[in-house]
Amino acid sequence: MIVMFDRSQTGTINFQEFGSLWKYITDWQGTFRSYDRDNSGSIDKNELKTALTSFGYRLSDRFYDILIRKFDRSGRGTVAFDDFIQCCVVIQNKHVEESILFVDVKGLLRSVVASAHIMTG
Ligand SMILES: [Ca+2]
Does the model's pTM come out above 0.85? Predict the structure, then answer.
């Protein structure tokens, strides 16, 4: 994912690139919260359906079951924040190689938060 924001292609992200990455993540946070209707901190099948339908996707009920199964790491039939980003990114980039499925969003979020602390603290 760093690659997506590494416009100068140096293998690292500079301050400006970090800014777009940070915005990307906070945008997703807003999206996630607005679709988490019951404020449970996770997205269930109906919430996912509402989200993806509003993004313009018409998917079968069976496909939502598959998505939930694929992105539900808690085994509770719901999708957490980082898995929700992954799920949407995967759907939006059907042509992107399988490898994106294994992008460590959680690790990325951790490093972004850690860098933000360093910069502000
Ligand atoms: Ca929810």
Answer: no
